[in-house]
Specification:
- By secondary structure, the chain is mainly beta.
- It folds into two domains: about 100 residues, no CATH class; about 60 residues, no CATH class.
- The protein is built from two helices and eight strands.
- The strands form two sheets. A four-stranded parallel β-sheet has the order 1-2-3-4, with no helix packed on it. Strands 5-6-7-8 form a four-stranded mixed β-sheet, with no helix packed on it.
- Strand 7 and strand 8 form a beta hairpin.
C-alpha cells in the first residue's frame, strides 16, 4: 500500500486495504475516501491497535460500495477487541453484501442486529449446518428489518423480522 492513501480523496477503486503491524497503516486512512465503488476488502483487522480508529474509517458514508469484506487474522488474539472493532465498522445501509472472515468474537456473540440494510437478502450459514450453531453457536437473538425465511435458523431462540417475532 502506498503511504498516505487517505489523501487520495477522489479515489474510486480500492479493492484491498491491508492493515499490518510493520507498516503502521491505520484504518482511519479510509476516512476521507467517500467515493469508493464496488468491493472493498479490509484485511488484518486484528492489527488495529486503537479501537476508535475503526469508527474513524467512516464506513457509513461510503455509499457507493456494494460489498464490504472484513477479515481478521487466523488466530484469535483478543476477542473483546474484535467485537469492539466490528461494532465500530458501521457500513452504509445500501450495502448488498457483507462478508466477515476469521472474526474472533463469534463464539461469544449473543445478539446480532442487522438494521437498515434493505438490499441484503440472504444469510449464509458458515461453519456448520443449519440448527447446529454454525458460525454463531451462542447467538440467542437475531433482529432484521426484512428478508428471507429466518425461521430455518432453529438454534436461535429469538428472531424478529420487521419488528415481529417469528
Amino acid at each position: 500500500m502506498p503511504p498516505n492513501m487517505g489523501k487520495l480523496k477522489d479515489l474510486q477503486l480500492l479493492t484491498d486495504f491491508i492493515l499490518d503491524k510493520q507498516s503502521g497503516y491505520n484504518i482511519a486512512e479510509l476516512k476521507e475516501l467517500q467515493n469508493l465503488h464496488g468491493t472493498l476488502r479490509i484485511s488484518g483487522l486484528h492489527n488495529i491497535v486503537h479501537v476508535e480508529n475503526a469508527l474513524e474509517a467512516n464506513m457509513r458514508d461510503k455509499k457507493y460500495l456494494n460489498e464490504l469484506v472484513l477479515k481478521w487474522g487466523d488466530d484469535i488474539e483478543d476477542s473483546q477487541k474484535d467485537r469492539e472493532v466490528l461494532g465500530k465498522l458501521k457500513p452504509h445501509a445500501n450495502l448488498k453484501e457483507l462478508v466477515i472472515l476469521f472474526y474472533g468474537g463469534t463464539r461469544s456473540l449473543k445478539e446480532l442486529r442487522i438494521m437498515n440494510m434493505m438490499e441484503w437478502r440472504e444469510w449464509y450459514h458458515i461453519g456448520g449446518n443449519i440448527g447446529e450453531g454454525g458460525m454463531f453457536p451462542n447467538l440467542c437473538g437475531l433482529h432484521r428489518d426484512k428478508g428471507e425465511d429466518w425461521s430455518k435458523i432453529s438454534h436461535i431462540p429469538h428472531i424478529t423480522v420487521d419488528g415481529y417475532d417469528i
